[in-house]
Amino acid sequence: MTALDDNIAKLEGHLGRFRETGIRNRIGGEDSGGSGGTFQTRSPVDRSVICDVAHGTAADIDAAATAAHEAFAGWRDMPALERKKILIRVAEGIEARSEEIALCECWDTGQAYKFMSKAALRGAENFRYFADQVVQARDGQHLKSPTLMNITTRVPIGPVGVITPWNTPFMLSTWKIAPALAAGCTVVHKPAEASPLTARLLVEIAEEAGLPPGVLNTVNGFGEDAGKALCEHPKIKAIAFVGESRTGSLITKQGADTLKRNHLELGGKNPVIVFDDADLDRALDAVIFMIYSINGERCTSSSRLLVQDSIRAEFEARLIERVDKIRVGHPLDPATEIGPLVTEEHFNKVTSYFDTAREDGATVAAGGETVGEEGYFVRPTLFTDASNDMRIAQEEIFGPVLTSIPFSIEDEALQIANDIPYGLTGYVWTNDLTRALRFTDRLDAGMIWVNSENVRHLPTPFGGVKASGIGRDGGDWSFDFYMEQKHIGFATGQHRITRLGAG
Ligand code: NAD
């Protein structure tokens, strides 16, 4: 038996129950069907139906928001150490079922097992990290004035909505849900319609860990009905959203009437800038990793390579050689580096850029073709001879597709890097420290790495500028979003109160 056969057999064991009952919504600790009936989720590997999924609509969101509202006071007031213990047990539950989570995620989304096995464990890490912050999350400051002892304290904002996309959905969901629960909020989660499997596993694990009913509720469905209703619901105090920039703008509009607080993590078209003085071997590894891992379906991917003229020919030649050798295959094969793209719609979008590149006058230097007939497989692709005004340089393709753009001097690199509506991440490769300081200071991005690929450190702020988002996650920034700051002033003596109407 090969490792692939073994993984397929294990997956079959996990999918049996989903095939039997479908994926139901979980509201107030109970399973329920969707008031819109059901829809089907399919595997991008061979387009086969995985199972039925409850199609939640406004009525289900209302039930879930009510359950979250009713559970809020109990969860908020539970002693911090008890909440902490439950969150640690959630992390342990994720670790215990990480193989099942990874296998289901691969089959549902097409992501390679090589990366999803780590992503499942990252989900557990998110819970552990925020569990450790539970006790001090409500701490505040003491700001003494001549007449008052002023203190600040933080309180959880209330029930919140979490709306997640289909790329690494399990890990991304934990990234929002773990700090929300640690803050003392209750949650209604609306996972992406294209990847419902692991959201179901998460709510099961959380309840088994002792999370009280109604603290985490999961409603499946589509953005235009379930997602919209969540944004509009008056009992939901904030929306943590991860997805496309144009959806982020809808989230803001939909929440306007209820004055919703929104945290938006949106798209990117991130530059990696390689100067000729860099460690080119390491730069090459990082450039390849940051666009071709996770199928390139990654908001932080470096999808624009800005390479200095003097090293361009050699760097691109080495790039082509490596890209041509990347292994495309079944996502459950541990040797696979790129699996199929998530849906037919997304596959059509990504492959349409192969023609766009040629029409715009770029060169398809590697890939640019589909693989097989059964699923949504594409070859990793590299476009060269591109300029920054081309669509392949300006639009988020969100697949294993890299656009290489040459530059000659530092100012030109900066101008190209910033000439884009997005500003999520940037990657700078140079051994000139002063240049790195100068360049990162002027680069429009929420997160920048110098001589490194993206290495997430949970206490650091995560988020973008421009069309890439509003707000930050990570460390205490997460609590700023899920909590309200309160100021309370205590008089320390009999200070003079201005008297009106006293003659
Ligand atoms: P999407 O915006 O289409 O969908 C994301 C979620 O929003 C889904 O659950 C969807 O059902 C829901 N939704 C859609 N319309 C809605 C509406 N009107 N109201 C409420 N909810 C609605 O995004 P996608 O295609 O699933 O994901 C890919 C995108 O996510 C890419 O643009 C990627 O860059 C972005 N992303 C960003 C980050 C980040 O941290 N900045 C991380 C991961 C993904």
Automatic annotation (TrEMBL):
Q: Where is this region: Disordered?
A: 22-41
Q: Which Gene3D superfamilies match?
A: Aldehyde Dehydrogenase, Chain A, domain 1, Aldehyde Dehydrogenase, Chain A, domain 2
Q: Write down a Pfam family by its short name.
A: Aldedh
Per UniProt, residues of the Aldehyde dehydrogenase domain are: 37-488
Q: Which residues form the active site?
A: E265
Instruction: Please indicate if the UniProt record lists Zinc as a keyword.
Output: no
Q: Which family is this protein grouped under?
A: Belongs to the aldehyde dehydrogenase family.
Name the PANTHER family for this protein.
2-AMINOMUCONIC SEMIALDEHYDE DEHYDROGENASE (PTHR43720)
Alphabetically ordered keywords of this record: NAD, Oxidoreductase
List the CDD domains: ALDH_F8_HMSADH
Protein name, per record: 5-carboxymethyl-2-hydroxymuconate semialdehyde dehydrogenase
